[in-house]
Write a structure and sequence with these properties.
Elements (H helix, E strand, L loop, with lengths): L3 H8 L10 H18 L3 E5 L7 H4 L5 E6 L2 H9 L4 E3 L12 E6 L9 H11 E13 L3 H8 L18 E2 L1 H7 L4 E9 L14 H13 L2 H4 L4 E8 L1
């Protein structure tokens, strides 16, 4: 097991190899579709911005958009995109109380062991009435079942994806992580129907799955089955 900073510094060189097409591009589009409407004209923070693939889609719509990441290798690429990013941890945010109207995080919180502390930090930096879109890996999903039997994927010449701390949660567990003053106001689900990433390489199948995933993301009955469970929370 590697610490998160070392893992993502290793991953940084390979991170965008598969990000611009197929399955991973679909995930990014679905996640942008959640975050962008809540970002318009707001002061926005992305926790775990990586190389800036989501942040670059949010930045033009926000009043101010800031990205935070633990990996300097990832941040170097985000800065190359001209984005406002800095190094830091989700459990100790380098911002004053009430700095942001909206906070979002994708593909990150499942790898944060001190998750309750991270949630307290989200609460602290949000302004009253502010919202956050927080993505967790869903224990009640097809993706979770498949991951249990899947072989490790390499993320660099030295590292595979089983070498980083990863947690899967149910919605009820996510609710328990939230401090007083943060309440769930909506739930979205990303990757409801996709059995495995390679399905998005099949012509025709990719288009059908993409459409189905976009519809399922926002429907209450299907959203809670998403492999990536996104809770929208609001600060009282």
């Amino acid at each position: 097991m590697k610490d998160n900073r070392s893992y993502y510094d290793d991953f940084a060189g390979w991170y965008e190899r598969e990000r611009h097409h197929g399955y991973h591009a679909m995930l990014d589009r679905l996640q942008v579709g959640i975050a962008r409407p809540l970002s318009v004209g707001k002061d926005v923070l992305e926790l775990g911005c990586g190389t800036g693939l989501i942040l670059k889609e949010i930045d033009p719509f926000a009043r101010k958009a800031v990205g935070l990441d633990i990996s300097r290798g990832m941040l170097e690429q985000a800065r190359g995109r001209g984005l406002n990013v800095m190094a830091g941890s989700a459990t100790d945010l380098p911002f004053a109380d009430g700095s942001f109207d909206f906070v979002y995080s994708f593909k990150v919180l499942a790898h944060v062991q001190a998750i309750e502390q991270a949630m307290r930090e989200v609460h602290r930096v949000l302004r009253p009435g502010g919202k956050a879109a927080l993505e967790f890996y869903n224990k009640t999903s097809l993706r979770y079942l498949i991951k249990k039997f899947k072989r490790p994927n390499k993320v660099s010449d030295q590292t595979n994806d089983h070498e980083v701390y990863t947690r899967y949660d149910s919605l009820s567990e996510v609710r328990r992580y939230l401090p007083n003053g943060l309440k769930v106001v909506d739930v979205r689900g990303v990757r409801v129907f996709t059995p495995f990433a390679q399905a998005h390489k099949v012509p025709g199948v990719a288009q059908v799955l993409g459409t189905a995933e976009r519809i399922a993301r926002d429907r209450a009955v299907t959203a809670r089955l998403g492999g990536f469970l996104v809770v929208i929370v609001e600060k009282a």
